[in-house]
Amino acid sequence: MGFSGFRVIKEALTGHKGWGPLWRDPAPRAQYDIVIVGGGGHGLATAYFLAKLYGRHRVAVLEKGWLGGGNIGRNTTIIRSNYLLPGNQPFYELSMQHWERQEQDLNFNSMVSQRGIINLIHSDAQRDSFRRRGNSMMLTGAGARLLDRDELRQMVPFLNYDNARFPIKGGLMQTRAGTARHDGVAWGYARAADQMGVDIIQNCEVTGFRIEGGQVRGVETSRGYIGAGKVGVAVAGSSGRVMAMAGLRLPIESHVLQAFVTEGLKPVIPGVITFGAGHFYISQSDKGGLVFGGDIDGYNSYAQRGNLPVIEDVAEGGMALMPMIGRARLLRSWGGLMDMSMDGSPIIDRTPVEGLYFNGGWCYGGFKATPASGHVFAHLLATDTPHDTATAFRLDRFARGHLIDERGAGAQPNLH
Amino acid sequence: MLIPHPLLGLRDAQEFTYLGDAALLNRPDPAAGEAGFADYVYLRDNPAGVHRELWFHEQGDRSWLVVTRNTLTHEILGAELARDVKLGGTA
Fold first, then answer.
1. With an 8 Å Cβ cutoff, are A251 and B73 in contact?
2. Which residues, other chains included, contact A16 with Cβ-Cβ below 8 Å and sequence gap of 6+?
3. Number of neighbouring beta carbons within 10 Å of residue B31
4. pLDDT (mean) for A248-270
5. Which of A180, A285, B36, B74 pairs with A292 at a CA distance of 20 to 30 A?
6. Which residues of A252-284 are buried (b: 16+ CB within 10 A; e: fewer)?
7. Which CATH number fits domain A30-78+84-93+100-105+182-250+343-415: 3.40.640.10, 3.30.379.10, 3.20.20.100, 3.50.50.60?
8. B83 shares contact with chain A (CB less than 8 Å)
9. Residue B88 confidence (pLDDT)
């Protein structure tokens, strides 16, 4: 049954007795055409697009824990398409276009709010570089606005414009960017995929791949063997661990990124503000909490929690940028696992094992990419050819020297 | 995290910068060719569990250490001078 304003009113008047589970809880079948490993945003979106755009319905999504319990529930919910390089920007713009019609497509409230993102500028050189990025964004239709100091001051008067080290000279704005409700994204895709016949199997950990003669035949799981024509792995954060079971080493290190939320406050921050020079970014959730974060901790970790030095660093960045938040009380902090790839860009490609496909290396940009990642991964799984916007995300690009290095930082995962 | 520096005792991890897997000590022979160097530069074991890794004591004695650490718990199990490891002393 669909969601609508009418139905919300009807349920409110009848004691909310008509709501049921949003998806089934099926037992795994013996064989599927396509098995997706990982029931996070990307895995669920992949299953949804496989069924919707490519007519594949004998599809299972295997999740080791509960649906939405991984990185889709551990991010800062920002959506944007403000990249520079031709290998990246068209892909993220595809994602932005999906976000804009997400709720209508899924009939589910993902709370997509296009409140805009501003990257702050502190020097003439940085303005030049941001103007170039803005031009690159406009080439893909993403839109960009270069704000001078006065315009910026009218929008966000509370910033510390005269910081001695990083005086604020303006900003690059993407008005179409914003935030979305992270859980709602996972639930919306799960419900829509389930309605088209996809089996979503929770508490089902993949413990190995069955590979015969270089061809994948299925996966061993904690709920028994499941045969598969093709297997797509979308487990960013744990990619190294999972792909090692297929005998592959990846150009990826797993790192921890922390994020923070304060108590609920009245509306004060209009959109997303990023302070790259001070390793700090912030937005305000619909509940009023200030949601912010900074850099990764910088060492390999699978712990899903970080350490205090980075918390201090992020808090200092926040105080340098907007001293008014000094009185806000921190409610929670959490850490998510990041697939930090060697060039800071993702990988969506076939692997040396026939029938095994890989989607990972999202660094800390995975949430905004969720719809497009599902779309292009479904395209790859269904057609065996990369989607037009994802031709650069090759697994072998490192050995071939065709890196997509937005930061120009080289093979240093903890610097991306 | 506190790193047990072999010469200086327990030091705060904030004094160090991190490089990555200690396998980076084993630079391949020039004859290994492009494939060998692509493996060395880009591919990682990235284990969940015990990991041997390079830390540089940048704000200390500027020595390189090989730290053994559990990536699931952040527990530090030991530290050696990278020089000793490289020269085969305790590798």
1. no
2. none
3. 6
4. 96
5. B74
6. bbbbbbbbbbbeebeeebebbbbbebbbbbbbb
7. 3.50.50.60
8. no
9. 80
CATH architecture entry for A113-178+253-341: 2-Layer Sandwich (3.30)
The question of ipTM being above 0.90 is answered as yes
Contact A310/B at CB under 8 A: no
| CB–CB contact B46 A303 (8 Å) | no
In this complex, is the C-beta atom of B41 within 8 Å of any C-beta atom belonging to chain A?
yes
How many percent of chain A have pLDDT more than 70?
100
- A254:B48 CB<8 A: yes
Please answer whether residues A391 and A402 qualify as being in contact, where contact means their C-beta atoms are separated by less than 8 angstroms: no
Q: Are A335 and A403 in contact (CB under 8 A)?
A: no
Whether A256 and chain B come into contact, CB under 8 Å, resolves to no
E strand map for A63-102: 78-79
Closest CA of chain A from B47, distance in Å: 7
Task: List chain B residues with CB under 8 Å of A342.
Answer: 41-42
Nearest to B14 among A244, A249, A309 (CB): A309
Residue contacts between A and B (CB atoms, under 8 Å): 71
Q: Where are the domains of chain A?
A: 30-78+84-93+100-105+182-250+343-415, 113-178+253-341
Q: Say how far apart CA B3 and CA B14 lie, in whole Å.
A: 10
